[in-house]
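quick q for whoever's on today - can somebody do inverse folding on this one?? i tried earlier but teh output was garbage lol. tokens:
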């Protein structure tokens, strides 16, 4: 080899000479909320996808998902695919023409209530599909603990989004007291925050948690929803030092901190002073994939991730405590429970539930959701009725302002149907 050829080859390897770079396309970027063991499992499943095109994938997992995505959109460097748990945020991105409607085959997997259609320029379209789901409306306790007079664990801290464990309480109570129709009106901003049904949900929460000392209140405001940390990671509120509580109101995802066999899970309805006819209504959440790129491979990626094969691959990569859950829908495989707790959750989600309603705060526009988070923190510290009236008035003011701003886009309509029968 001549000296000139060696120099040219070295230059090509360093990508210094035009025309020497590889023709291979850049990796598709997936932005998502999973870190730790969940992130490792999802990334492993992602890397094992075989689409026959030679495309590769880069996963970016972050707990600051909204801030990261907003920053990328402002810099005009969005991910190809992003996975979000907020229908309110996804709706805003669709309104601003940042999302691409899903391909027909993928849209068929966008079952309610996780992926309601949006009306855009006179056409109903699907803009996201759930990759995994979570069942809320659950209460956790230790085996052998009496359930007649529970002492509630409460941890409201969660980095920048502190307060959401409290909004989950208010939402679940309203669902079981006022029913799915009323819940849906409220979640989609068609019901005033000063409505008696809404106010009653807040006061019921205060009554259920009554008698807490000032020190207990402050500890709950500063303690993570995961509980305290030990050598092996989060211990869960039921196992955390300083907490003498017996029951915890939390979503199915919290099972990852309760790996033993001494924790039981049951529906929350009987604890919430609700009505018998709404006993089998459940609040749910989910992580939905949306396409931000015009690259056709991004659509193909979401199609594969949401397919039966993609789901099975993900479950195979994940440890039992963080295995994703899916509802049974036509053409999709049923969940193979990893343990007794997951089996119980699977039964509630896929056999017992008569109505599923998406997490109300995650349906709300981000400004209203954030105000809701702050309000429950303030109310938890001071649950006086006069203070509650002031907080509800503030939230109503935000709701009206957001509605007025959304009226500037008459060709766009946000989702209204966020409660659905589990069978679709």
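ok took a stab at it. sequence:
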């Amino acid at each position: 080899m001549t000296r000139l050829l060696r120099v040219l080859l070295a230059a090509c390897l360093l990508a210094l000479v035009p025309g020497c770079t590889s023709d291979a396309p850049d990796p598709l970027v997936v932005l998502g909320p999973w870190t730790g063991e969940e992130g490792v499992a999802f990334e492993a499943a992602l890397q094992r996808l075989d689409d026959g095109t030679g495309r590769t994938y880069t996963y970016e997992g972050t707990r600051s998902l909204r801030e990261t995505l907003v920053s990328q959109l402002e810099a005009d460097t969005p991910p190809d695919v992003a996975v979000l748990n907020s229908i309110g945020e996804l709706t805003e991105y669709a309104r601003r023409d940042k999302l691409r409607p899903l391909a027909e085959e993928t849209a068929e997997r966008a079952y309610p209530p996780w992926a309601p259609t949006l009306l855009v320029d006179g056409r109903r379209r699907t803009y996201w599909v759930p990759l995994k789901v979570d069942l809320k409306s659950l209460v956790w306790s230790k085996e052998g603990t009496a359930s007649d007079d529970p002492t509630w664990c409460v941890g409201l801290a969660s980095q920048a989004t502190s307060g959401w464990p409290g909004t989950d309480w208010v939402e679940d109570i309203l669902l079981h007291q006022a029913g799915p129709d009323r819940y849906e009106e409220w979640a989609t901003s068609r019901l005033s925050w000063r409505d008696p049904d809404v106010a009653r949900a807040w006061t019921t929460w205060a009554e259920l948690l009554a008698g807490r000392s000032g020190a207990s209140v402050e500890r709950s405001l500063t303690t993570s929803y995961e509980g305290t940390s030990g050598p092996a990671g989060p211990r869960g509120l039921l196992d955390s030092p300083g907490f003498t509580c017996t029951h915890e109101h939390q979503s199915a995802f919290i099972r990852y901190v309760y790996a033993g066999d001494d924790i039981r899970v049951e529906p929350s309805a009987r604890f919430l002073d609700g009505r018998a006819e709404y006993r089998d209504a459940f609040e749910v959440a989910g992580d939905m994939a949306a396409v931000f790129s015009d690259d056709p491979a991004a659509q193909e990626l979401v199609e594969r991730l949401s397919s039966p094969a993609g789901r099975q691959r993900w479950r195979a990569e994940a440890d039992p405590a963080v295995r994703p859950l899916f509802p049974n829908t036509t053409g999709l495989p049923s969940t193979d429970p990893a343990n007794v707790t997951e089996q119980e959750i699977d039964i509630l989600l896929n056999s017992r539930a008569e109505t599923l309603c998406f997490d109300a705060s995650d349906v709300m526009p981000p400004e209203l959701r954030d105000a809701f988070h702050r309000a429950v923190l303030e109310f938890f510290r001071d649950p006086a009725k006069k203070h509650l009236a002031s907080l509800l008035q503030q939230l109503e003011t935000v709701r009206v302002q957001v509605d007025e701003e959304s009226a500037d886009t008459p060709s766009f309509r946000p989702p209204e149907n966020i409660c659905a029968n589990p069978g679709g």
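fwiw Residues 1-20 have pLDDT under 50 and may be disordered. also Residues 136-282+358-416 form a domain with the D-Maltodextrin-Binding Protein; domain 2 fold (CATH 3.40.190.10). so keep that in mind when u check it
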